[in-house]
């Protein structure tokens, strides 16, 4: 339980490894090369966890070659990676009481209403974006002045006494020290510190924007905003990167254009039997699977009302492998619903269920994906299909009759 679980730059940086009789400290450049190597070869996932791909390749001695600069210390580098804990190393534990195969309901899947809906939404697409960097600069400056807030640097000072030195390791690890007192104090500003920061360089690294563009942004922000850098440079950089990236996403999405590409999603490849968590499955009648896996109380209530509504002919909770490409990651809509013709105005509906439709309740990236989906459905999909966010079943019925 004490072992590290994330193989990232911060973990590797500063580690001491042995190269023959020499000791080598992994600097930031080496740590970055190592992390990029793991990402490039799918040896870590998006959260920095070691993947089964790495475990298998390590066991079979078939790992991709390390970067040339790391080759001289290959063996200790691999041993360093091995110190990161991975669930992939554990034998699989099967529990038939926790999992259940969710079979496809062929009768519902082949209903003419669902096939007609599927034909409307299964078109594959590509997107293109083109925006003016001056627009991004203006948006970033406004957002930074409005949102960027950082706290003071607080140091925790601990004092103690050196008692008995049992061995060298105890001394190096400060285990020989006995804590006597501790207190907090505000840190000094960078004007009184010897630490130097390449502010523009750090922002360029985090946002993938040019130094020229970032220089213009920093030049235009208010004095109070920029004063936060002296107060807490690390927090300033972290928050500035987040805010600028959000504004970059907004600019990209505002100028996105979708076009059809060759090929369509195939019904038999998207809707396949899957194993799901038994506790989250709801037995249903009108779904394209025998069960629906619900992620929240909102979804559970939504499913029950869909299944009992006489206006609904058939519906599907769209699997993860049905997705729409966006600049901020693939987007997977929640539901595709076919209504009985003549009972509602919009008989084909693709819905995203959210407990609250307030933009304040949605994460910025979610907002961007949803806006991209609106543009996809407006441009690529037939006007017979309506797409929107719904807070629940009553909201859905209002929209299909609007």
Task: Report what the structure shows.
The chain is α+β, with helices and mostly antiparallel strands. The chain has 16 helices and 14 strands. The strands form six sheets. Strands 11-12-13-14 form a four-stranded mixed β-sheet, sandwiched between helices. A two-stranded antiparallel sheet has the order 1-2. A two-stranded antiparallel ribbon has the order 3-8. Helix 7 crosses helix 12 (233-254), helix 11 crosses helix 12 and helix 12 runs parallel beside helix 15. The chain is globular. Mean pLDDT is 85; it is low at 356-361.
Task: Give a quick precis of the structure.
With 402 residues, this protein is α+β, with helices and mostly antiparallel strands. It has helices spanning 9-12, 28-40, 52-59, 74-82, 106-109, 112-121, 133-147, 168-172, 199-207, 211-220, 223-231, 233-254, 267-270, 297-308, 364-379, 393-400; strands spanning 16-19, 22-25, 99-102, 123-129, 154-162, 177-186, 256-264, 274-277, 281-283, 291-293, 312-317, 335-339, 348-353, 385-390.
